[in-house]
Every structure is written in C-alpha cells, then in structure tokens.
Write a structure and sequence with these properties.
two-stranded antiparallel ribbon, 4 helices, His-Me finger endonuclease fold, alpha+beta
C-alpha cells in the first residue's frame, strides 16, 4: 500500500504510475490525481502543450512516415470507411512494418487484425485454403 501525496488515500501500488520501471520507483500521486494534474497543466499551459505535442508528432513521423493526406486527428482526407470492413469510424493509416510504406486506410480493429495476420501469415494462408475446401481435405481421412 502507498499513500497518495495529493488526495491522501492509501491505495495499492498498482494504482500509481511508474517513475522508473527498471528500479520499480513509482510517482507519489495515484493515477487519478496524476491524470487530473496533467490535464490541468495542459489547460494552464496551452502553448507549451501545443509545442510538446508537435515535437512528439515530428518524432513519430520520423519513425513511421505519414502520408500528407492524413489529418492531424489521424483521419485520411477523402476516406469515409475502412478499406476492409467498411466501418466509418476510428480510421487509421495502415503501413508495412518491414519497409514503412503505407498501404491504405483501415479502422482500428482491422489494423490490429492485420498486424496479427502479418505475424502468422502461414497459418492464415492454411486457414483460408481450409475454408475454401469446405473441410474436404486429405486430413479428413484421418478422423
């Protein structure tokens, strides 16, 4: 148990963010108090917050090249739906993790699914073949 320096309540250590995860040090304020203080700082320091956000976005652009047609909120200009499922919300720019090249616009769910498929491509290819054969394969003889 640890006591929050802001609200004075005793809470489990999991309710405090890590200050240094390697050493196991945690901040003195619990997560709700920490978030509240952080949001208040953003309101009190809009210019500094805007600068730090822009700097962080530039850092991300260096790691994952962003298409110029993507708005700051992450939505693609002209895109109205996911290219896989047609869902209109939470659109994001899908990119190949190996080479960083963009592939298209997907909803968050499909984008996460694509990452899983990339990791298990052989299994998914076998699964698609299995579905297409309607279960009629030589393996059925073994049953």
């Amino acid at each position: 148990m640890k006591t929050c320096k802001a609200c004075g309540l005793s809470k489990p250590e999991d309710d405090f963010y890590f200050a240094d995860k390697k050493r196991g040090y945690r901040f003195g304020k619990c997560k709700p108090c920490h978030k509240s203080k952080s949001r208040q700082w953003q309101v009190d320091n809009p210019e500094r917050f805007k600068f730090l956000t822009a700097r962080y976005q530039q850092k991300l652009k260096g790691l994952h090249p962003v298409d110029p047609n993507i708005t700051r909120s992450g939505n693609w200009i002209g895109a109205s739906a996911c290219m896989l499922c047609g869902h209109p919300d939470n659109l994001c720019w899908d990119h190949n993790h190996a080479n960083g090249k963009g592939r298209g616009i997907l909803c968050h769910g499909c984008n996460v699914g694509m990452a899983d498929i990339e990791k298990n491509l052989d299994w998914y290819a076998r699964a698609v073949r299995y579905i297409k054969t309607d279960g009629e394969s030589e393996n059925k003889k073994l049953l």
